[in-house]
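REVIEWER CHECKLIST
Item 1: Sequence provided? yes
Item 2: Single chain? yes
Item 3: Sequence as submitted:
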Amino acid sequence: MKKMNYIYDIYLNLNETLYDFFDWNKNDKLIHIKKIPIFKVNEDILRTIINNQIKIDDDLLLQIYNKTEIWMMSGKINYCALFSDSNTIIAVEFNKSGKSIRKSFLYIDEELEVLEVINKLNERYIDFNILNKEKNVFKTRKQVKEEKFINSELHHMEDNKLSYIYFECFGIHEKNKKIILENINKISKNSKTYKNLYDILKLTSTTKK
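Item 4: Structure as written out by the authors:
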């Protein structure tokens, strides 16, 4: 069995949805890791691990079993490890079958410190199967919340109000609901028009948010 390498004293924000560190919030249940295994892999493998649900082989699963320790808590995370290509680091928690169930990036300052260690490690091949492509679109929570709000408001909106909203955004009078919704759906999520749409809907919404 190959020598196991570890990283000590870091925080993880393990979730089914992978959030970048700048999108963590005060309600997240951060886990203070005392000790966790780490594996250096190539760029292609790391990208696959980040973007897909995977299933690792039994050998690797056995190697990482109960190797992750937590500060200020009893017990351990049964199956968890860090993977890095010397540029990015991802923490992955697996279930007892070897399927990835939760993931986490690291705080930027902790990541930089860990990358210094990674550079000294030998690259390792990880045997796994891809189960499903993750639905990670790497939007911030704020973006996701805004999109859900806009879609909900438009879905329940009366035709007259929808025409008014459309005119405020585009300066065009249009009564055909299908055309209005089609054109709104074409708006770039990063555009000024989309922000104006959100601001207008917030002002005119009858629902408390």
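Item 5: Key structural point noted by reviewer: DSSP finds seven helices and eight strands in the chain.
Item 6: Recommendation: ____
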